[in-house]
Amino acid sequence: MTTARAHTNIALVKYWGKRDRQLMLPQTDSLSLTLNEFYATTKVEFDPSLTADQITIDGQAVSGKGQAKITAFLDIVRQLSGKNDFAYVQSTNHVPMAAGLASSASAFAALATAAAGAAGLQLSRRELSRLARRGSGSATRSIYGGLVEWHRGTDDLSSFAEPIMEQVDFPIEMLAILVNTKKKKVSSRSGMQSSVETSPYYPAWRQVVVDDMKAMKKAIADRDIPTIGHIAEENAMRMHALTLSSDPAYTYFDAETLTAIRLVHELRDSGINAYYTMDAGPNVKVIYDRHDRQAILDKLSPVFGRERLVVSQPGPGVTIIDD
Ligand code: PMV
């Protein structure tokens, strides 16, 4: 039996599209910040008496599509380890409230680490990153803490994440505005596929990411939070332009998403270096220097309510918490 804990991450240069759906090889590199506030704790135990994998998430039994996805992932671990038993999987999401931010990144990074441990595999962090990738692309990066780069690679061996700065030594912070915590209508999996296949802007996106990766790494080396925020914001909006330019077009924006964006612009107009990013859902994340936290809370709280604002610092990589 092995229990592992992994934190979620938010991309500053987004991953949006696969090149190989089976191996989960991405079209582009990406770069993220692991967060300390949101994490999953997952326990895995293989048991020869089971006739199927028994999975619970937050105490609820998982069946149907969710179960099939986790069983397919465990099949990879069974294949790697030669262990043919089914497993008990118990996972708990630790989020400040039912946030809709319980991300597949922390879930699959924790599952990969716990399942590999329980199956007796001795994997390096790079190998764990490659394994987590098979569950969910963003999970590739959640093996590491802090600022992390995922090299798209050209095959299973070369597509893994690596830390750029595991112990973040400058005061970057991220605040999540919980706009809407319901399940998204278009999954990231089908959304990105549709963008790759139908958006005429997809080739331009590939070049955007090449340029943004370079500029973002320089901004990180310079510990330049306004430039990091600026690149992350521009990159996120160009990713969301892929959704609007897909056929059929769709969007992850809600009405309140636009309110949040307007408030961040107003903060900037008033001289505070706040920037926003968004993933495959309507919640907005604000990037800023922690010294500006109070000014940002003062601006957002009257509109959204303090309970819908979650402040997060850079977080750690995956850990085994008992064995
Ligand atoms: O790998 P997934 O299904 O969690 O997709 C991640 C997609 C984004 O969150 C929008 C971008 C990213 O790089 O995390």
From TrEMBL:
Top-level taxon in the UniProt lineage: Bacteria
Annotated EC: 4.1.1.33
Transmembrane segments: none
Any single Gene Ontology cellular-component annotation: cytosol
An example Gene Ontology molecular-function term: diphosphomevalonate decarboxylase activity
Keywords: ATP-binding, Lipid biosynthesis, Lipid metabolism, Lyase, Nucleotide-binding
Domain Mvd1 C-terminal: 175-306
GO terms (BP aspect): isopentenyl diphosphate biosynthetic process, mevalonate pathway
Domain Diphosphomevalonate decarboxylase-like N-terminal: residue ranges: 6-161
Family: Belongs to the diphosphomevalonate decarboxylase family.
NCBIfam families: mevDPdecarb
The protein's name: diphosphomevalonate decarboxylase
Species per Swiss-Prot/TrEMBL record: Limosilactobacillus frumenti DSM 13145
